[in-house]
Please model this.
Amino acid sequence: MKIIPLTEDVSLKRSIDQGTEEQRKAVSEIVTTVRQEGDKALQQFTEKFDGVRVSDLLVTNEEITKAYETVSEETIEIIREARDNIRDFHARQVQQSWMTTAANGTILGQKVTPLDAVGVYVPGGRAAYPSTILMNVVPAQVAGVERVVMTSPPQKDGTLNDVVLVTANELGVKEIYKVGGAQAIAALAYGTETITAVDKIVGPGNIFVALAKQQVFGTVAIDMIAGPSEIVVLADASANPEYVAADLLSQAEHDPMASAVLVTTDAHVAEAVAEEVKKQLETLPKREIAQASMDDYGAIYIATSLSEAVDAVNELAPEHLEVVVEDPWAVLPLIRHAGAIFLGEYSSEPVGDYFAGPNHVLPTNGTARFSSPLTVEDFTKKSSIISYSKAAVKQHGEKISAFARLEGLEAHARAIDYRLKEK
Amino acid sequence: MKIIPLTEDVSLKRSIDQGTEEQRKAVSEIVTTVRQEGDKALQQFTEKFDGVRVSDLLVTNEEITKAYETVSEETIEIIREARDNIRDFHARQVQQSWMTTAANGTILGQKVTPLDAVGVYVPGGRAAYPSTILMNVVPAQVAGVERVVMTSPPQKDGTLNDVVLVTANELGVKEIYKVGGAQAIAALAYGTETITAVDKIVGPGNIFVALAKQQVFGTVAIDMIAGPSEIVVLADASANPEYVAADLLSQAEHDPMASAVLVTTDAHVAEAVAEEVKKQLETLPKREIAQASMDDYGAIYIATSLSEAVDAVNELAPEHLEVVVEDPWAVLPLIRHAGAIFLGEYSSEPVGDYFAGPNHVLPTNGTARFSSPLTVEDFTKKSSIISYSKAAVKQHGEKISAFARLEGLEAHARAIDYRLKEK
Model:
């Protein structure tokens, strides 16, 4: 890893795959075809892209039962415990509708309503990602969304991964469709004979899924389009280089474009971490990916003071931030921009990826400056409530009319005037 | 207005100006030029589009003082009272950071942080829109945003509208720039010598402003791209046709593409409202606009029951909904999709546009299915807090490693394992 003295121009090297013109065109065609031809198009695209003909898109109870045969009781117990932790944390995010009343009869308020229907996209590929299901489905359920639908591309044999099915079932998800890619996103946005359209689509995916989500945005809501994963570790002399290196590598193994950065006030820690990264890389199964990430996007910055280091962290606005200093809680109030903040040397990032409870869907690419982790609120919307009594209109009506006329909106003013003329 | 029996296929006719290819290209060039050339480009575009050379973009104290000379004390008092009402309502939306602790030393939480800097775009044109300033600036200030900047296109004499300046000053906005259009949005997103970049841009504008906001989205956050205004009135036999007609027209006068729709269970009310609309239109200053809106986007639907009418309202998911029935509070729980809900015949929509307190920036174009009014939360972001103790890692670490391995992420698992091996 490069060791660099911290200058004012600190920045995370970041790349986001925006897709090629060709990919955008391909996605646009898929979306249009699914919108026009429904299930037939879903089956054709699935045959083309996933190499399997799926006659029935909906996962059956038999398939779920069968999936349990291959998943160990121990694994199921871990999934359940993670689920319960995630539920417990997100339950604390639930917002109440509220109102305020005034003696003149005015009632104002804010009504919180869960979305009607949400679609969760779960990527396919060789590995199963039960944590994706937990992190996207649980907040929707906690929000009170009645219909939570899942889609995932089928494997070559036409089934979904057993762990995926078991995790979905442990959450009580009843509607699971064996369809992936841009065609799944189109189906969720516009509906087909089998799949009723939803109001919001969440969950990660490849570039085709991301481009499809961008294209249907507006017809439905979408979550963020996530960039490659990022970690910044803020460390002083007290940090354990072995832990720091391991945590940097845990992000680096995700993606050759993932960013793993150390900002430290201690030159010895910088060197020891660089050494440890080298050593730990040697035996890592995803060594090539992690090595590429470290070479191209990794860096160790040396700051001359903790305050300078904190400024750098805020400048970077990372997705994940670990604060590994003697008194991490003293640093917390100074952190302005980070998706998730891990405090102290035992708060290794994987603790938050799977188990602790907070969401692992976090703002990437510097958007922690203005974006938040996925929350229960993302699965609700608000309506303002305004109830004015006759007395309230009599009391304030003339001011409201005058304001409307100030903006040149006479019909607005008259709507109030009609109410004022009545005794 | 057309009177139509309610069928299952109820829909608001809606149009959104997406801009032409030419407009998108023009905006893209403006944004690029401002990004490269800074203030110089701002001045050139202002000369070109606003027909005035503005040497100093920043509004001076002298300009503010002068603005007060032409605005009446009465107007200022109304603006202040509206400001206080809006502040009071939005103060109730403020969220607290929170945490939860467990006996094993785990601390989890959510930190709420205001955005660093927000830019509010205020449209120019013949009329002044002080309500736009109030509704966009107040929630940002209540959220705790330290730097709230305003931009607005200069008038032909190089100044801003006096009411705009007075309103901004009554809110304590110190940074006001005389620049509008796509060039203002580019300056807010990328910064120039004079204007430091912000983190989020809010406020309405013409198609050039909307397209520029779309183009800078990602670099900064933006609010919604608003479509034409919409109102749906849900009325039974108890409704006063004069009031209903006036409220429909108050939306129609905004825009020839605005939608004003009545859904009623009473055929007599339907006819009486149609009659009243005709009558009230005759003397309206913006008669042509309102007439065009009513002809092209207006409709009166007759429902056979209140329940059918409510279903139609939810299907329409309007920006503004007035519930003018005998017992509006009995209907409220049934309303799932509406930006703002006005209850009872005295809750005329203009009450909410200017004065009552709730925000008038509301989801249009059916997005009330999944979007909310502008809130204080839109000017904050959250960070998750995760602090695991040594004891907590010892207790749960093996499960976390196992979960990581389930997903094929060995470096994640090892990051935990390193902590477990220590006594």
In short: Residues 3-13+228-356 of chain B form a domain with the Rossmann fold fold (CATH 3.40.50.1980). Chain B has three domains: 3-13+228-356, 21-222, 388-421. Chain B touches chain A through 116 residues (CB under 8 Å). The first strand of chain B starts at residue 3 and ends at 5.
